[in-house]
């Protein structure tokens, strides 16, 4: 097969820089998870005390949700730690996929939370009871909102800075939890006005909100497991490759997330009369541009094909082996 060959262009100082950046981003992620875990557990503890005193199932649902949100930090922290391990001959891409496994655990935790909160709310609808300490219940709802909103901002900010979609999604989850905490105020207000069913009704509404979060989280994890990426990233990679002098055409571009790092496999068409060294130099430049202009990209494999004006198919021997 007439071709310049499969050219994997290692880029020495960038590889080292990217590895250091990856370790630092994992360390920052671990710090965020530790701090947010502490904040949410304190928030949930304050709410739990008031749940025992008041008997509010709306507040119980919100408390359980906050506990679940805090617990999602545990599998994520494990995943960040495992993801820092170096690649091996068995795990040749490293351990970044541990974040996706953590995502599955998070989805299961959210599902269990929805089921428990819904069960308690239905029980209270069947057997309605007045709640006490209405003022404290309302205060607990405000505490839940403030705790979740602080955690949401912290997770989203750092998640975007280090390129962790899992951390950003967890931050958005916390923000949703904050608004469900405010819903507790409605239940407390209804009970104060002599409508005891307001509390379990709000509890059911919180359960529905949790189910929406569950749907979004499950969809996000499904996309990651299926190697889905934002099409805009593919457009960006193609645009970068077109700026490389000597690239006649851009072929296929494949991107995948491995943890919070992006990896690329691309094909470029170069002049068919180039020497091997010249084609290799173009592959090096293409990888160099991709790594520098796509901040979340950690590694790229660049494959060069000859651009032949005669239209010859230099991959003909492989055609019968390709899946169409």
TrEMBL record:
Domain spans labelled Cation efflux protein cytoplasmic: 234-307
Limits of the Cation efflux protein transmembrane domain: 34-226
GO BP: intracellular zinc ion homeostasis
Subcellular locations according to the entry: Cell membrane
UniProt GO molecular function: cadmium ion transmembrane transporter activity; ferrous iron transmembrane transporter activity; zinc efflux antiporter activity
Recorded coiled-coil stretches: none
Region annotation (Disordered) ranges: 303-324
GO cellular component, one term: plasma membrane
UniProt keyword Ion transport, yes or no: yes
Keywords from the UniProt entry: Cell membrane, Ion transport, Membrane, Transmembrane, Transmembrane helix, Transport
Pfam families (alphabetical): Cation_efflux (PF01545), ZT_dimer (PF16916)
Membrane topology of the entry: Multi-pass membrane protein
Superkingdom in the source lineage: Bacteria
Chain segments annotated as transmembrane: 32-52, 64-80, 101-119, 201-218
Record family assignment: Belongs to the cation diffusion facilitator (CDF) transporter (TC 2.A.4) family.
Name of the protein in its database record: Cation efflux system protein
């Amino acid at each position: 097969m007439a071709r310049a060959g499969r050219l994997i262009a290692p880029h020495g100082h960038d590889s080292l820089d990217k590895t250091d950046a990856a370790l630092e981003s994992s360390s920052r992620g671990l710090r965020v998870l530790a701090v947010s875990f502490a904040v949410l557990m304190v928030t949930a503890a304050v709410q739990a005390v008031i749940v025992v005193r008041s008997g509010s199932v709306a507040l119980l649902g919100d408390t359980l949700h906050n506990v679940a949100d805090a617990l999602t930090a545990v599998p994520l922290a494990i995943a960040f730690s495992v993801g820092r391990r170096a690649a091996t001959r068995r795990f040749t891409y490293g351990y970044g996929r541990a974040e996706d496994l953590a995502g599955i655990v998070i989805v299961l935790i959210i599902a269990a939370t929805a089921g428990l909160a819904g069960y308690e709310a239905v029980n209270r609808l069947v057997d309605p009871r007045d709640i006490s300490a209405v003022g404290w219940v309302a205060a607990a709802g405000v505490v839940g909102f403030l705790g979740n909103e602080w955690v949401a901002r912290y997770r989203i900010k750092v998640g975007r800075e280090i390129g962790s979609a899992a951390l950003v999604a967890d931050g958005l989850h916390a923000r949703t939890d904050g608004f469900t905490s405010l819903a507790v105020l409605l239940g407390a207000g209804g009970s104060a006005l002599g409508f005891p069913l307001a509390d379990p009704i709000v509890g059911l509404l919180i359960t529905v909100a949790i189910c929406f979060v569950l749907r979004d989280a499950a969809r996000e994890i499904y996309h990651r497991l299926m190697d889905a990426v934002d099409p805009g990233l593919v457009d960006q990679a193609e645009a970068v490759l077109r700026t490389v002098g000597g690239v006649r055409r851009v072929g296929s571009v494949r991107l995948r997330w491995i943890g919070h790092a992006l990896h690329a496999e691309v094909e470029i068409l170069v002049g068919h009369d180039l020497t091997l060294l010249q084609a290799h130099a173009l592959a090096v430049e293409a990888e160099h541009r991709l790594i520098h202009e796509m901040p979340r990209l950690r590694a790229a494999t660049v494959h060069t094909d000859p651009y032949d004006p005669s239209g010859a198919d230099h991959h003909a021997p492989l055609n019968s082996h390709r899946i169409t």
